[in-house]
Specification:
Strand 5 and strand 6 form a beta hairpin. The chain is built from 1 helix and 10 strands; from the N terminus they run E-E-E-E-E-E-E-E-E-H-E. The protein is mostly beta strands.
């Protein structure tokens, strides 16, 4: 079964940086697009970054120029480097493979990011 385990979240101040990691298992990681998502209290989960299996990358407008997504296929891991964090970045961050979302693959526990003003 597919599994995702996120880590790296913390309580930080506005302007700080954080590095998130997500370890994936249960599927051939290198063949799948991978996404980072976040859900703030009272909001729906949204995609913030996508990296394809060929390393094409897209970002949500709200994080463009501040977040950097990358992947290491040798470690089945996807990363999210978050710079110049803002209070509105406060959320639980998750990773997933879009195709596995469509197949009903389970979400991981996520990692909490809190940005204080």
């Amino acid at each position: 079964q597919v599994k995702f385990v996120e880590s790296g979240g913390a309580l930080v101040q506005a302007g700080d940086s954080l590095n998130l990691s997500c370890s994936a298992s249960g599927f051939e990681f290198r063949l799948y697009h991978m996404g980072w998502y976040r859900q703030a209290p009272g909001n729906q989960r949204e995609q913030v970054a996508l990296i394809t299996h060929t390393n094409s990358i897209t970002y949500a407008d709200s994080v463009k120029g501040r977040f950097i997504v990358s992947r290491d296929n040798t470690k089945n891991t996807v990363y999210l480097k978050m710079n110049n964090l803002k209070p509105e970045d406060t959320a639980v961050y998750y990773c997933h493979a879009p195709l596995w979302i469509d197949r009903g693959g389970p979400w991981g526990p996520g990692t909490q990011v809190v940005v204080s003003p």
